[in-house]
């Protein structure tokens, strides 16, 4: 089935069209087209994501990105591909409403759409123009991120998706952003064997999740304070690097690693290595970096590289240690590591080595699918539709703290 997905949980506006095939034994996902606008340059000046700005930018970019998809995939060319529309037939699940020419019905629909979009300045007008310009695309299902994330940002995507669902008469199902990160590995044409251990390392989450099926999730370990991505971002700020700090720290650490600079003459703690549980804590590590920075009179480029290198090494050591521990405690057939931090190339090589030594099948998303995107939401939405009935214009509430 062809799914159009919308992602607006944080500072990336994403829309993607993905073909997801679900059979009893296998799920395959093939990206047809994905569009992303990263708001990073806009948020840099605030040193982090500013929700009101994120919301405004999502409202600006959603119609622009959708137009790119509708231009590349007009209704006719999609249906002409002759591909199987998927194993699920939604036609009997949803009210088959008219594509009515009756003016009063149309007026009523426009007024409902206007009500959905009225909170975002100009969004209704732009959306209406777009919907009147392009024919209904050949899409089986719509999905949108419900949470977790920034609620003002999530609401924009949800209202936009509901408007599309209502106008095109295409069912819509909510998707969970973290499940999206987990299922991003399916975009690589891979297979998840259960039980599996999913390790999520993003800007807002650091958690180990045991999965016994695509809809059975148990958190078996999580951070008690900062998430790993958040720690990267905070440490980056301490040494004067721009938001988001992950890629900047990674760059400096790589420079230190490939020269003889290394970590210098100091070490940072590797927190929670001596506890029996699978939990994490990064605030102590962050504080150690802060003390170090305060102690240094002039933060030279070399010292910044030392700090970045030692910080990244401490994080990597903790990650490798906890993976080992989790595999000692449970029998898993697959290890998935996903979330923005797995865009880090050093970490990728380290976990690949560990998985090789431990003979664990490791699934990682492509680097480009690691940070927030809509293609992963399409896969999560398709899987969600196995358990949650997709309907036309459903009442979806943004849930900033949505869990599994
Ligand atoms: O998954 P994501 O895009 O958004 C959330 O759902 O949170 O993750 C964003 C996080 C940020 O904290 C960013 O600094 C971090 O992922 N990140 C990285 C790298 N690229 C992004 N951290 C370390 N190394 C990277 N190369
Ligand atoms: Zn994310």
Mind sketching the topology for me?
Layout: E1 2-7, E2 12-22, E3 27-38, H1 40-43, H2 51-72, H3 75-80, H4 103-117, H5 123-133, E4 141-147, H6 151-168, E5 172-176, H7 177-183, E6 196-201, E7 206-213, E8 216-222, H8 228-238, H9 245-258, H10 283-295, H11 301-329, E9 334-338, H12 345-358, E10 362-363, H13 367-370, H14 375-384
Parallel strand pairs: 1-4, 4-5, 6-9, 9-10
Antiparallel strand pairs: 1-2, 2-3, 6-7, 7-8
Helix pairs in contact: 2-5, 2-6, 4-5, 4-6, 7-14, 8-9, 8-10, 8-11, 9-11
Distance between the termini: 24 Å
Q: Please count the helical segments.
A: 14
Biggest sheet, strands in spatial order? 3-2-1-4-5
* Bound small molecules, deduplicated: 5'-O-[(R)-(carboxyoxy)(hydroxy)phosphoryl]adenosine, zinc ion
Query: Which percent bin holds the helix content?
Result: 40-55%
Overall pLDDT: 92
Structural class, from helix and strand content? alpha/beta
The poorly predicted ranges are: 77-98
Question: Measured on Cα atoms, how large is the radius of gyration?
Answer: 22 Å
SSE pattern: EEEHHHHHEHEHEEEHHHHEHEHH
Number of strands: 10
Q: Specify the overall morphology.
A: globular
Describe the structure in your own words.
With 404 residues, the chain is of the alpha/beta class. The protein is built from 14 helices and ten strands. It has helices spanning 40-43, 51-72, 75-80, 103-117, 123-133, 151-168, 177-183, 228-238, 245-258, 283-295, 301-329, 345-358, 367-370, 375-384; strands at 2-7, 12-22, 27-38, 141-147, 172-176, 196-201, 206-213, 216-222, 334-338, 362-363. It has a five-stranded mixed β-sheet with strand order 3-2-1-4-5, sandwiched between helices. A five-stranded mixed β-sheet has the order 8-7-6-9-10. Helix 12 (345-358) links the parallel strand 9 (334-338) and strand 10 (362-363). Helix 9 packs across helix 11. The longest helix is centred in the last third of the chain and has 29 residues, at 301-329. The radius of gyration is 22 Å and the shape is globular. It starts with a strand and ends in a 20-residue tail after the last helix. Mean pLDDT is 92; it is low at 77-98. The structure holds 5'-O-[(R)-(carboxyoxy)(hydroxy)phosphoryl]adenosine and zinc ion. Residues 177, 181, 202, 340, 372 line the site of zinc ion.
């Amino acid at each position: 089935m062809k799914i159009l997905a919308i992602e607006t949980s944080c500072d990336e506006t994403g829309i993607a069209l993905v073909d997801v095939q679900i059979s009893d034994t296998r799920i395959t996902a093939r990206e047809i087209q994905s569009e992303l606008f990263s708001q990073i340059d806009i948020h840099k000046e605030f040193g982090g994501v500013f929700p009101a700005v994120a919301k405004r930018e999502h409202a600006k970019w959603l119609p622009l990105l959708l137009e790119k998809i509708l231009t590349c995939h007009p209704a006719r060319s999609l249906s002409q591909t002759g591909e199987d529309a998927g194993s699920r037939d939604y036609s009997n699940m949803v009210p088959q409403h008219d594509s009515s020419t009756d003016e009063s019905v149309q007026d009523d629909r426009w007024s409902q759409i206007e009500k959905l979009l009225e909170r975002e300045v100009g969004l209704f007008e732009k959306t209406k123009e777009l919907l009147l310009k392009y024919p209904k695309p050949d899409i089986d299902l719509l999905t949108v991120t419900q949470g977790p994330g920034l609620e003002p940002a999530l609401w924009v995507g949800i209202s936009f998706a509901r408007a599309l669902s209502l106008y095109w008469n295409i069912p819509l199902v909510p998707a969970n952003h973290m499940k999206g990160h987990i299922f991003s590995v399916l975009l690589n044409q891979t297979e998840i064997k259960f039980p599996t251990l999913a390790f999520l390392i993003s800007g807002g989450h650091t958690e180990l999740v045991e999965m016994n099926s695509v809809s059975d999730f148990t958190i078996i370990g999580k951070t008690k304070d900062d998430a790993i991505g958040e720690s990267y971002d905070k440490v980056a700020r301490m040494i004067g690097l721009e938001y988001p700090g992950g890629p900047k720290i990674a760059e400096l650490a790589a420079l230190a690693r490939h020269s003889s600079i290394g970590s210098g003459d100091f070490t940072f703690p590797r927190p929670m290595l001596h506890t029996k549980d699978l939990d994490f804590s990064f605030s102590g590590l962050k504080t150690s970096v802060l003390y170090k920075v305060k102690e240094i009179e002039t933060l030279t480029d070399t010292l910044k590289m030392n700090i970045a290198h030692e910080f990244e090494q401490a994080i990597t050591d903790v990650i490798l240690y906890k993976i080992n521990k989790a595999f000692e405690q449970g029998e898993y057939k697959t290890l998935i590591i996903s979330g923005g931090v797995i865009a880090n190339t050093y970490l990728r090589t380290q976990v690949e080595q560990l998985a090789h030594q431990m003979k664990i099948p490791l699934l990682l998303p492509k680097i480009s699918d690691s940070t927030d995107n809509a293609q992963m939401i399409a896969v999560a939405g398709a899987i969600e539709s196995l358990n949650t009935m997709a309907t036309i214009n459903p009442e979806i509430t943004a849930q900033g703290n949505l869990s599994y």
